[in-house]
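Anyone opening a protein record will find just a pair of labelled lines. A complete record is shown below as an example.
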Amino acid sequence: MTHYMELLATNQPWNLVIFMAVPIVLAETIAVTELYILYTRAYHGAVRMLNRVCSIVVGFYFLGIFLYLLNTAVVPLTVANGWRGAADVIAVGFYLLGVVPLLGLSLLDLGLLGRGRDEHGRMGLHAAFVALFLVVGHIAMVFGMLDPAVMGGAAGHQH
């Protein structure tokens, strides 16, 4: 199994909640509210506030995950040559790449990005970050569920 799946399977249910459920629930809440906001152009109100709060929280939450996994998994695995092949590297790499769009959402809703855009333009950029997160997250999941041996890597729990 890839290190991505091993992380989610270990310490049940806590790793699954911390590394998957929390970021995905926040991201899905953002995606659903985003559709409503863009369709209705309701840039103010409760739905936009929920969207904004979730966007700010998920970006900084995932930045914490990124830094934690970089220091406790990526660097040690790289130094020890412990990767289980290409699928393993792709899964973990794309999972961690999620920090770019998620932190982008936070910075956008804090007013640090998109300053020259009107409200509709900022929401368009917001939607692009959501879409990018969906792409990198799904690539991570697909490769994370793949047996590393399929792409020439080592299978199983090898440490």
Notes: Residues 3-151 form one domain. DSSP finds six helices and no strands in the chain. The helical segments are 3-9, 14-40, 46-79, 86-97, 99-109, 119-145. The chain has a mean pLDDT of 94.
